[in-house]
Amino acid sequence: MAKQSKAQQETVERVLHEFKEGELQSGSGDKVKDRKQAVAIALSEAGASNQQSPSENKRRLAKTKRQERDDAPTKAELYERAKKQDIAGRSKMSKAQLEKAVG
Question: pTM to 2 decimals?
Answer without folding.
Answer: 0.64
